[in-house]
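User: My collaborator sent over this chain with a note saying "see what the structure looks like." That's all I know about it. Can you take a look?
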Amino acid sequence: MAKFKKPADIRVGVIGYGGAFNMGRAHLNEMKQAGMTPVAVVEIDKARLKIAEQEFPGIETYTSVDAMLKKSKVNLIAIITPHNTHAELALKCLNAGRHVVCEKPLAITTAECDAMIAAAKKNGVVISTYHNRHWDSWILKAMELVKAGVIGEVFRVEAHMGGWGNPGDWWRTSKSISGGILYDWGVHLLEYGLQLLGGSKVAEVTGYAKTGFWAPKTKWGKDCNEDEGFAVVRFTDGKWLSLLISKVDSAARRGLVDVTGTLGSMNLGWDAVEVVTHDGEKTVTTRHPLPKAEGWKLYQNIADHLVKGEKLVITGEWSRRPIHILDLACQSAKLGQAVKAKYA
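Assistant: Without extra context I'll predict from the sequence alone. Here is the result:
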C-alpha cells in the first residue's frame, strides 16, 4: 500500500494523550522519529490538551473523535484508550478513511477484531496494533538462537508473569474494561510465543481461571479481573504454548518465557537469555547478553508500508491471533472444556 510520496506527508494523531505512561507523547514522538508529521490530539482532559500544545507547538487539539475526523486532515491515528473502547473508536476512524494503530490489545473479542479488519479492507486503509515488543531485546536474541538451531526443534513455550499482591483499582483491573487478567501483559507474552513457534497453527485453547479472592478488596467488586488466569494452546503440529498471569502466585519464577527444544532450553529474562544445552552427560549453561531493543521499527515499518509499499509486519490478522487465543481461553474457562480455534 504505497500512497504517500514521503513519510512527512503522513499526518498523524493520537486519541488519548495523558493517563498511564505518557503514551500519547511517546506515540507521537515515535511516529515523528519515523518521519511522519504530528498534527492532532484528542483528549477529554483539557489540562492534558494544554500539555500536548506545549510539547508539540501548533498541534491541533480536540475533545472528541468526531470533531477531529470532521475538521482535521490527519491520515494515521493511534488509539491509546482503555481496551474496551478500541473497537468502537477504530471502526469510526477506519470508516472515515483513516489508517489506525491501536495500542495493544487490538480489541477484547475475536468478533471485534474481525469487524476492524473488514472495515480496513473495505475502506482501503491499514489496521495495525502497537506490538512494539515484537522487537524486544530478549525476543530478538531468542529468535536468533532458535534460528541458529541452538536448542533444536522448539516444541514447548511457557510464558508467565505475576506474583502475590493486590491488583489495585485502576481500569486495567476491571474485567469489563480490560478484558481480564490475561489481556495486558498476556498479549505481549503470547506474541513472543507465536514468534518462537513460527508457523504453527492453533488447533484449540483450554482456559482456567481463579476468581473471588481480590474482588471484594477492590472498587470493582464482581467486575474485578480474575485472581489468576491460565491458558494452554494446542497447535495442529503437536506443539503447545502456555500462559500464566497471576496475582496470587507466590512462586519465584525466573524471567518471562521458558522455551524447550529437542537439544536444550532457554529462559528469556529481563537482562539476558539463558541457554541450557548438553555436551554428552555434561550440562552447559550459557548466558547471552541482550542486544538493543528495536521497538522503533514498528512505526518505521508502517511509514515504509504507506510510502514504499513494504510488507506490513504487524497486520490486523497477526494482531488478531493473540486476541483469538485470549477470547477462546475466557470461553473455555466458563465452559470447563477446550474450545476449537476459528483462526489458526
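A starting point for your reply to your collaborator: DSSP finds ten helices and 15 strands in the chain.
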